[in-house]
Amino acid sequence: MRFEQPKRYGNVENADTPRMLMATIPKSDKTRARILEAATEEFSQMGLSGARVEAIAARSTNSKRMIYHYFGSKEKLYAAVLEHAYQMFRIREESLGLQDMPPADALSRLVEETFDYHESAPNFVRLVAIENIHYGEHIRRSSAITKANATAVPLVAGILERGYKEGVFQRKIHPIDLHYMISALCVFRVGHLHTFSAVVGHDLYEPELRARQRSMIVRAVLDTVGATSPS
Questions:
Q1: pLDDT tens digit string along 198-211?
Q2: Which domain holds residue 24?
Q3: What is the tens place of the pLDDT at every residue in 15-72?
Q4: Does residue 31 fall inside a structural domain?
Q5: HEC assignment per residue over 73-112
Q6: How far is CA 186 from the centre of its chain?
Q7: Is 230 a domain residue?
Q8: Closest alpha carbon to 48 in 117, 126, 144, 149
Q9: Domains: count for the chain
Q10: Which domain CATH number covers 88?
Q11: Which of 44, 71, 76, 197 holds its CA 20 to 30 A away from the CA of 223?
Q12: Does the residue 147 lie in any domain?
């Protein structure tokens, strides 16, 4: 079963960054990038079991032989897609310069970026859901994903530590718990877009509703640590 891509709003221009960079990288890397892009679409729509290498080859205008040359097997290609997805997410986080912002501003910006990224990359959310069907086995086996995600909790911990030290945050919370809260609130609305929209009778991507929920999530996270919304 294939899923219709939702409409996109918000800070989504970075979703096309890989395409803009294509002109500046070597041909061999462009070929690999095209295969990864096509495989991301195929795996996110069809899952690991339902995805077909023939379809990925057609999407990427490459041969099956070329795909096996670069990745070895369908399962290894799926793992590479997961690695690339997580790496891109963490690279965007690192580019925000949160360490240079006041703690409340940094936390607010982290929530906004997490919200915007997941909305701009629904395939990422689907891939994570698919990997959960496989009990996270490919993520656990990937040293590249482990390395990419090693910054996630320390990033939150650093913001919290500065906030407590400066007296900006009044309520203690474990960094893992806050990371979980941010992820849960931002991922749910994308992962459950179609069912939740049908239940409540409203499209979660309506601009007014989207803006309201984005702001609500920021306020909820700031309130959890005992901070006020940054001006």
A1: 999 998 889 999 99
A2: 14-224
A3: 444 443 334 444 568 889 999 999 999 999 999 999 999 999 999 988 899 999 999 9
A4: yes
A5: CHHHHHHHHHHHHHHHHHHHHHCCCHHHCCHHHHHHHHHH
A6: 10
A7: no
A8: 126
A9: 1
A10: 1.10.357.10
A11: 197
A12: yes
